[in-house]
From TrEMBL:
The chain crosses the membrane at residues 9-29, 100-127, 148-168, 188-209, 254-275, 295-318. Pfam families: BPD_transp_1. Belongs to the binding-protein-dependent transport system permease family. This is Peptide ABC transporter permease. The lineage of its organism: Bacteria, Bacillati, Actinomycetota, Actinomycetes, Micromonosporales. It comes from Spirilliplanes yamanashiensis.
């Protein structure tokens, strides 16, 4: 219990530091949303209209940075993330809520599949060295080093186009209204196939390599030799003794991946114009939408910290040494 309380205290401090940076970084970007809007109109706006925009967006140019920081924390404790400048007058929470599920479903499903497939193949490759699965390592090494967005561009060039089954952009067919019906769901699945394929191919290779290397290392340990000497079945030694211990580093990596699910794969969403949280962040940065940027960073930060806390708990359950040291 002491170990768990220490980890919670550490993550609370980390959350405070991350949220403080979340406040500071957007304000270091030159300009503000009103100036960005003025540039779209090529400066042809009445000065009174400009002042009205500052009042409308709640930007107090006279307030000091400390006053803004205090107001920022006050809004967080009230659950108020502010109004989005680009989607005014929609609240930031509403704008994020419409995009986050696209990313969670796309990246969440592909992350879980890639972890399960990669870990399973990694166990076989590490335990049966020299087999045909182990011979696939050069290909997996190459794929793991290829960026997501480059694979996305290749997939669009080869598989998408006029008359193709795979759409090259968007989350669903134009004209459809998001709803759980027989028209929208098949369209959404069809539009997610290429982004999901891109993420799956790149990420599964990394899981295979890491699990295979850990299996090779664990297979040389003394307790594996003792298990064989006891006459235990090969399958039990591989799964209960070798794979369980080799899985520990992958559990931490998987928990981190779960945390970054909310942030999505930014470049993949940009390449496919997929309506997820990463693409929303890209548009918010371009429009200097401070409240929306801060809201997205807040969601990503909390997700990563909770995923790390979950990894610590799972690690503590899988490895008794952690509990003893704690």
């Amino acid at each position: 219990m002491k170990y768990l309380l220490q980890r919670i205290a550490f993550y609370l401090f980390t959350a405070w530091a991350a949220l403080t940076l979340n406040f500071v970084i957007p304000r270091m970007i030159p300009g503000d949303p009103v100036k960005s809007m003025i540039s779209r109109f090529q400066g042809q706006m009445d000065p009174d209209a400009i002042e009205s925009l500052y009042v409308l967006f709640g930007i107090d140019k006279q307030a000091g940075i400390w006053d803004q920081y205090v107001d920022y924390w006050g809004q967080l404790f009230r659950g108020d993330l502010g109004l989005s400048f680009t989607s005014f007058p929609s609240p930031v929470s509403e704008v994020i809520g419409t995009s986050v599920w696209w990313t969670v479903l796309l990246v969440g499903i592909t992350t879980a599949l890639s972890f399960a497939i990669g870990t399973g193949l990694g166990v076989l490759a590490g335990w049966r060295r020299g087999s045909w699965i182990d011979g696939l390592l050069p290909a997996t090494t190459f794929l793991s080093s290829v960026p997501y967005f480059w694979l996305g561009l290749v997939a669009i060039a080869l598989l998408a186009g006029p008359g193709s089954f795979f759409p090259s952009s968007g989350g669903y067919e134009p004209g459809l209204v998001p709803a759980f019906d027989q028209y929208f769901i098949p369209s959404a699945i069809q539009h997610s196939l290429l982004p999901a394929f891109t993420i799956l191919i790149s990420s599964v290779s990394g899981w295979i390599l890491s699990m295979r290397n850990m299996m090779v290392t664990v297979a040389a340990e003394d307790y594996i030799t003792v298990a064989h000497a006891k006459g235990l079945p090969e399958r039990r030694v591989a799964l209960s003794y070798a794979a369980r211990n080799a899985l520990l580093p992958n559990v931490s990596g998987f928990a981190l991946s779960l945390g970054f699910i909310v942030g999505g794969t930014l470049l993949v969403e940009i390449v496919f114009s997929y309506p997820g949280l990463g693409y929303l962040l890209f548009r918010a940065v371009g429009a200097k939408d401070y409240p929306l940027m801060q809201g997205i960073f807040l969601v990503i930060t909390i997700s990563v910290l909770l995923a790390n806390l979950l990894a610590d708990v799972v690690y503590m359950l899988l490895d008794p040494r952690t509990r003893k040291e704690g």
